[in-house]
Amino acid sequence: MKFSTPMPGRRAVLTSFAAATVVALVGCSTQTGQSAAKGEIGGKITVWTWNAPGSGLKAAIPAFQKLHPGVEVDVQDVGNPAIWEKITTGMAAGGSGLADILNIGIDYMGNYSEKFPKQLVDLRDLGADKLATQFPAGAWKSGQGPKGQVFGVPYEVNAAGFFFRQDLFKEAGIDYSGLKTWDELLAAGTTLKEKTGASLFSMDKAGTVGDSAGLFELLMGLQGAFYFNAAGDITLNGPEAVQSLEIIKKANDLGLVEDVPGSWENLLVTLRGERKVATTSSGGWLAGVIEEEAPDMAGKWSVSLPPAVKTGGLTGAVNGGTYLSIPSSSKNQATAYAFIDFALGTLEGQKLVYDGGGMFPGFKPMLDSDGFVAPNAFFGGEKVNQIFIDELNQDTPAVNYTSDYARALKAYVDVQTRVVLKGADPKTELDEAAKQVAQQTGRKLATN
User: pLDDT by residue (tens digit) across 263-282?
Assistant: First the structure.
């Protein structure tokens, strides 16, 4: 099982984004890309990324160089989260010192494209249009600008993995495969708690980390919604948000939610079965983490599509991801795009990248390739990759993070804390939170 290196607490870095854009800028690095003649492929390009995705890109360099002899590709491990501040600093300085290719997280794409609209190349000008149908709709759209600009080609594409303890459900006499909606899951959770003592979910009820909103964001995604709509208007108090938080409140009121402080070690305790929690949702990368960190749990954990919020609704959602983008300051854009196109837009390149770094790809020919889907012994013979493919093949919507995601996230987590710890009313609290975000950002409240 391949997986990317997770970065716990990464969302917290978003809170410093706005401040970083106005910091006095000194000591920016010099441009390292050596320019080739316009439209020609040659010279040297640099790539900013971090550990695991960098390993994947490095694996593709020799084959790329066979196609383009003499080209030099320097993949630099800038570190995560350090890369976000470094990109912000460079963009605030008009692109000074930026690499030729930037590995950008889905939750940062809106920040950069809104605050620095001229700093990213519209990759349509370099031929990216031909790749649009080759990637999942939600992932592709989430890398676009308001006018259809293509600011990044999907690199890592994470579907929302819904992991459950098959052994606990069997002990309770529940056929998990028959649970199709969240209402059915909560009803089963009551029986599960009575017969096994296991909680259905765990949550950091005090909201000490941004990832405390993970369940809410999954429920929103399954309804085609997020904190903002495509126009950038606030949907934090929309009907989808209210429905999502009501599900969480109902689960909590039924005693199905275990209060677990947010930390990586606490997650590992749950995965190892040292805490009786029957489900957890995360990006697909968690499959590899469970297999590596909890080997004694083989055959006990399983994976499924998330239940639908409403019968017949979506059972898939985008749960993070990254893009490869080109800053306008690059002096060697043709070569930069040629490398992106090879690494992410060809089967040869995608196989090399996947084998080298393990990021779950979005390139459809790779998903359809021989051997990509195979039974996984750890998960009881389940074809785990096929589950994620089935999610990505659904018409999942774009995830509109915008440049104000950090504010909306903080406002929501505060609301969730009041709802689960004090029993506050979800709609009342979300209405107040949405007004707060509107006051802070100047954005409009969406018409519900």
Answer: 899 999 999 999 999 999 99
